[in-house]
């Protein structure tokens, strides 16, 4: 059973930066495609970014393109989300997710149902 633990959340002023980290237990990390989702209070959980098992392919929500960068370190079983130019609209609980499922359809990796392993989330609060 894989186990995901996020860290790095906190309170940051608008325009600031944070880097979220997620460590994935288990011996199959290199096979995983990994993603970040977020959920603001009273709203649905939404896709933020994904990095595939290939380590090359990445996808981003339009709202974060150019500001957020997803990366992974297969030697450390870690996935990261570098968040720059944060705004109050980025305030949410951020979740790390993993899947071994694969598809040639890029949209597949933006969907919650694709991922079968989830972390508990880390709170990011951006003050105005």
Give an overview of the whole structure.
The chain has 128 residues and is mainly β. It contains no helices and 11 strands. The protein has strands at residues 4-7, 10-13, 18-24, 33-39, 45-51, 58-60, 68-73, 78-83, 92-99, 117-118, 122-127. The strands form 2 sheets. Strands 2, 4, 5, 6, 9, 10 and 11 form a 7-stranded mixed sheet that branches. A 4-stranded antiparallel sheet has the order 1-3-8-7, with no helix packed on it. It is globular, with a radius of gyration of 14 Å.
Topology:
Elements: E1 4-7, E2 10-13, E3 18-24, E4 33-39, E5 45-51, E6 58-60, E7 68-73, E8 78-83, E9 92-99, E10 117-118, E11 122-127
Parallel strand pairs: 2-11
Antiparallel strand pairs: 1-3, 3-8, 4-5, 4-9, 5-6, 7-8, 9-10, 9-11
Into which percentage range does the β-strand content fall? over 45%
Amino- and carboxy-terminal Cα gap = 40 Å
* Net shape: globular
Report the order of strands and helices.
Answer: EEEEEEEEEEE
Instruction: Give the integer mean of the pLDDT values.
Output: 96
Helix content: under 10%
Q: How many DSSP H or I helices? A: 0
* Low-confidence runs of at least 5 consecutive residues: none
Give a quick account of the main beta sheet: strands, pairing sense, barrel closure: 7 strands, mixed
Number of E-type strands: 11
Structural class: mainly beta
Radius of gyration: 14 Å
């Amino acid at each position: 059973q894989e186990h995901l633990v996020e860290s790095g959340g906190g309170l940051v002023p608008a325009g600031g930066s944070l880097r979220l980290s997620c460590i994935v237990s288990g011996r199959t990390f290199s096979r995983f495609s990994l993603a970040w989702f977020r959920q603001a209070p009273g709203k649905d959980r939404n896709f933020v970014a994904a990095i595939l098992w290939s380590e090359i392919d990445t996808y981003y929500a339009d709202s974060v393109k150019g500001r957020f960068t997803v990366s992974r370190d297969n030697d450390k079983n870690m996935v990261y989300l570098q968040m720059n130019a944060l705004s109050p609209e980025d305030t949410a609980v951020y979740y790390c997710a993993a899947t071994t499922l694969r598809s040639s359809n890029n949209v597949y990796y933006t969907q919650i149902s694709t991922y079968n392993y989830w972390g508990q989330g880390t709170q990011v609060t951006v003050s105005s």
